Fold:
Amino acid sequence: QVQLVESGGGLVQAGGSLTLSCAASGRTFSSYAMGWFRQGPGKERESVAAISRSGSSTHYGDSVKGRFTISRDNAKNTVTLQMNNLQPGDTAVYYCAADQQSVDIPIMTPWRYDYWGQGTQVTVSS
Structure:
């Protein structure tokens, strides 16, 4: 089992940047594919980015490609989402998720994930 705690959310102006971090408990972090998801007001949950167990493969949602970067540090049990050129449409609660995998691929499907953090609010003002 793994516990996830997100941090780094906040209020930023359009065009600005934020870095979200997710700290995971447990000694088997490298066996988990990790993902970032978000849910804006009145919107469905959206897949933002995913990274494989080793960090060698990543995948991004179309709306964030070229602006967001996901990375992980298996020695520190952390996954990071660097968000650049933020826009008001990026306003949402951002969630970190973990899915124990036997293969080294990124997973973009939310229902595949077994463990979720509590979320962190990102608000982008115009």
